[in-house]
Amino acid sequence: MGSKLNLNFELVEESRKAAQNIALDTQEFIERHTTVAVERTICRLLGIDGVDEFGVPLPNVVVDNIKNGNGLSMGSAYFIGNAVVNTNLTPQEIALKVSKGEMDLTRLQAADIFDIKLKINSIAKETVDKIKSNRANREEYLNRFGDKQGPYLYVIVATGNIYEDITQAVAAAKQGADIIAVIRTTGQSLLDYVPYGATTEGFGGTFATQENFRLMRKALDEVGEELGRYIRLCNYCSGLCMPEIAAMGALERLDVMLNDALYGILFRDINMKRTLVDQHFSRIINGFAGVIINTGEDNYLTTADAVEEAHTVLASQFINEQFALLAGLPEEQMGLGHAFEINPELKNGFLYELAQAQMAREIFPKAPLKYMPPTKFMTGNIFKGHVQDALFNMVTIMTNQKLHLLGMLTEAIHTPFMSDRALAIENARYIFNTMSDLGEEISFKDGGIIHNRANEVVEKAYELLKEIESIGLFKTLEKGIFAGIKRPIDGGKGLDGVVIKEKEYLNPFIELMLNDKANKGV
């Protein structure tokens, strides 16, 4: 189908080329570096789990041991593989010895590199096969139950207690939700370790732990069997442990992951060097595991004006698309983000929202776009809020958005009650049904407000991308072009966890995951 907006697709392709150059330029830095989080992720993927007697996660213990011995530039896989060759112990047994002070990985005799690679690749392949099996299980569920046509109804649970979250998630699934997002507790993105075990306390959300993932996945599978639907599970692999949480999600069959370095840089003051390196490995894992990533462009509009700065959202979507492709993520797994955040007092604001959403759909036709509800201008007036959410629902169905995060009429008042969620689902289902094919029935006036708005945003995004291409992404973030927030290149949290790789650096999972057919979108 042709463009309803008469978009200048030559300019779109030029924008894409500029974004590709931006990503490739940044990728040169990424390829030369590793981080403590990447190395902890490799430990987890090699089977290291649990905590020591002080509650410190064993992946942290192992990586700290290697870092203290100035060995991190070779990679944790090298030292663990060397220890396996030397001792014939498993990675988990080696980690326990390190935690008790019985082994220093950097002081063991160096084995032949061929033997190390052979051993570590054998162990890594077991984990890769498990993740492939999880992906196959998801496909089996979808083949058996069928997948939903039209938008996925995406709701959140955020009690702080995983068991209460499960109660609410099961209720939401029975009310009609398709995706359950377990909101992560406030501040977890700034922890440089992953908490362990099931958790029952959290402020504004629940800790992301592998056990919590396992418990929620099991509950959603059980209610899915009862309902005859596959219920997708979403969590967050942003922050200082981005790739670790991606690995945990892959091991426990999560389906959707919030996964965006720019969000962490801008809104959590995480060092840009650190999180861009972390993002690349996390996206390789998500791509291989069949996980849809959600990017965080919607957040720009919580601090910047949604009319004046709409082009920054599109520019960021272009850049995120290119970073995802470099990590082997197919377009069908790119939940590029945007939001319904224009001031409701603006005349013809709905037309601008419609233009922006239709533009995103036409520019990224294969992407399961993630569309966020109005939050910035929700006032506590639940009646007006419900109407704002209804208009948001209308744009979704008219422009074929896919991951539709439901707006709540009590936004800006409290964490939603189950009854609030039920009303939100009812509202969306009514509009999606009664307007199901409206988008196919309508066209937009040539030279009208919607056409002009969409093309203005494309032109501004192109100009911005050419500017970023000329100065590089790092300097762009220093200048505060996205969300009006400036971040220094050597500032923020986590910089001390960035390390330059040696020539012999070893990470078996990149090659195994990128070269496997399961990651080719088939």
UniProtKB/TrEMBL annotation:
Location of the D-Lysine 5,6-aminomutase alpha subunit domain: 5-512
InterPro entries referenced in this protein's UniProt entry, alphabetically: Cbl-dep_enz_cat (IPR016176), Lys-AminoMut_A (IPR015130), Lys-AminoMut_asu_sf (IPR037086)
Highest taxon, organism lineage: Bacteria
UniProt-listed Pfam families: Lys-AminoMut_A
Protein's recorded name: Lysine 5,6-aminomutase subunit alpha
Species: Clostridium rhizosphaerae
